[in-house]
Design goal:
Strand order of the largest sheet: 1-2
CATH architecture of the largest domain: Orthogonal Bundle
Shape: globular
Strand content: under 5%
Largest sheet: 2 strands, antiparallel
CATH class of the largest domain: Mainly Alpha
Order of helices and strands: HHHHHHHEEHHHHHHH
CATH topology of the largest domain: ABC transporter involved in vitamin B12 uptake, BtuC
Distance between the termini: 44 Å
Oligomer: single chain
Number of helices: 14
Length: 374
């Protein structure tokens, strides 16, 4: 009996896999390269050196002492918000109200830290838990509207963002809610009192940089979510619901129950992001009118550009965080910080083009195959 050589079996498969990986990566490399080229041209048009500008971004994000620790701090809430977006998308739901849910979670954390009394670590854990519950409950309003009244969650979650702004403004100006009781004078308070030191997240010091333990929590949650979505019955039901509501119902999956849970968990992670931001030192450990700072919107982009992959969201969150922290060093180059927002938009477009091209190719192949069958 003739034995088939091992190379004849395994050999051709490996080049095929490498070729497939290269074909997938090449469009991303080209798109990002074009985006960086356009960014450099934009900087040159403003009369500045693109090398100096990108050098300042790198210095502000990673190279200067203590900067990469700050970048990791900024990346933490972005990652948490992105994980919440991943859960919703897997269930076929698009929660775009993370900005409001993050703000509600921060308000809950501020209430626990400034109004309750007790051991600091206990209040910290309670504040984080209540922040997650508040964000989840706020998203639960959209879930009720979605499954009881048929209101699309895209609309309801977006409108709830603006309601959260108003609730926050009311709370920080009302004494029995979140107004700083230590503020004096006739002017109204525009922020809560600062969290006591005992209710703040501990920091880890490493190689001259500092980041709080919220980063470790976010990383653990990313790994757990990747495992839960890919290896558990709950994750399978969620993906089945996102693929087809009809198929999910025919197999016994309750769209209302599973979808509501996914939407609440999505909002809960955004609320946890707000609580972590506050306990980690954002805005001087105070909640003000501009506390959210677009973290919710950018976390949504992190999830989309990571293609709803919890593990891929980790480096993507670092990329967005580096643009935020690096932009602070642009003043020394004479370039407006708005340039960074344009660069960020170009990178977002660059990372969205390859999936769109791949989708169109698959669609064209499917149409061609259907025509051949006919």
């Amino acid at each position: 009996m003739t034995q088939t050589p091992r190379a004849a079996v395994d050999g051709p498969g490996r080049p095929g896999r490498w070729r497939s990986a290269a074909e997938t990566a090449l469009p991303y490399v080209l798109s990002v390269g074009v985006a960086l080229f356009l960014s450099a041209g934009l900087v040159a048009v403003t009369g500045n050196s693109w090398l100096r500008v990108f050098g300042a971004l790198l210095d502000g994000a990673f190279l200067e002492p203590g900067r990469w620790g700050e970048t990791l701090i900024v990346a933490t809430p972005l990652l948490l918000v992105a994980l919440g977006m991943v859960v919703g998308v897997k269930a076929g739901l698009f929660n775009i109200g993370q900005e409001g849910q993050l703000l509600v979670g921060a308000m809950a954390m501020a209430w626990v830290g400034t109004r309750l009394h007790g051991p600091g670590p206990l209040l910290l854990l309670l504040g984080l838990a209540l922040g997650m519950a508040a964000g989840g409950g706020y998203a639960g309003i959209a879930a009720v509207m979605r499954y009881r009244r048929g209101v699309p969650e895209v609309i309801s979650t977006l409108l709830l963002v603006f309601l959260a702004y108003q609730l926050n403004g009311f709370a920080i100006q009302t004494r029995w809610l979140l107004r700083d009781l230590g503020a004096t004078g006739p002017s109204r308070s525009v922020a809560t009192a600062a969290l006591p030191e005992s209710v703040r997240l501990p920091f880890v010091r490493l190689f001259g940089n500092e980041f709080h333990v919220g980063l470790l929590v976010a990383l653990v949650l990313a790994v757990l979510m990747a495992w839960a979505l890919g290896r558990t019955v709950w994750g399978f039901r969620l993906r089945l619901l996102g693929h087809s509501t009809f198929v999910a119902r025919s197999t016994g999956v309750s769209a209302a129950r599973s979808g509501s849970l996914a939407l609440c968990l999505s909002g809960g992670l955004a609320g946890l992001a707000g609580a972590v931001m506050l306990a980690g030192g954002a805005s001087g450990y105070r909640v003000g009118t501009s506390f959210a700072q677009n973290y919710g919107w950018q976390g949504l982009l992190v999830a989309l550009l990571a293609r709803t992959n919890p593990i891929a969201a980790i480096p993507m969150a670092v990329v967005f965080a580096s643009l935020r922290t690096g932009s602070g060093f642009l003043a020394a180059t004479g370039v407006d910080r708005k340039i960074v927002e344009v660069v960020q938009a170009l990178l977002v477009l660059a990372l969205l083009i390859p999936p769109a091209v791949q989708f169109l190719r698959r669609r064209r192949r499917a149409v061609a195959a259907a025509r051949e069958e006919v």
